[in-house]
Design brief:
Strand content: 15-25%
Order of helices and strands: HHEEEEE
Structural class: alpha+beta
Number of domains: 1
Distance between the termini: 12 Å
Largest sheet: 5 strands, antiparallel
Number of helices: 2
Strand order of the largest sheet: 2-1-3-4-5
Helix content: 25-40%
Shape: globular
Length: 97
């Protein structure tokens, strides 16, 4: 079942909730593999289009990332970069779950 937050984010991204959550799961698996390979215990792994695009100690400046990027912390919590444009970067990070 999709929670209200997932439905709202999916609508803002012009996706169905199932597509949003499917992309989130795919990127989460990629982020966990990246974290394990590098022994990362903290911070945020950032993914986009099926690949890791970075790691950050803090999840602060969304404007440095393209809308649609996903971020995952070491406890499995997830965020998506929303708003903004490809050229100017995202406006903010939104918690998915």
């Amino acid at each position: 079942m999709f929670n209200d937050r997932a439905r709202q984010l999916a609508g803002a991204m012009n996706l169905s909730p199932s597509v949003l959550l499917g992309r989130t799961e795919k990127h989460w698996l990629i982020s966990q593999e990246y974290r394990a390979e590098r022994g990362l215990k903290d911070g945020y792994v950032i993914c986009h289009n099926g690949q890791v695009v970075g790691w950050r100690r803090d999840l602060d400046e969304a404007s440095g990332w393209t809308p649609g990027c996903y971020a995952f912390d070491s406890e499995g919590r997830d965020w998506v970069a929303v708003g903004g444009t490809h050229d100017d970067g995202a406006e903010r990070w939104e918690r998915i779950g």
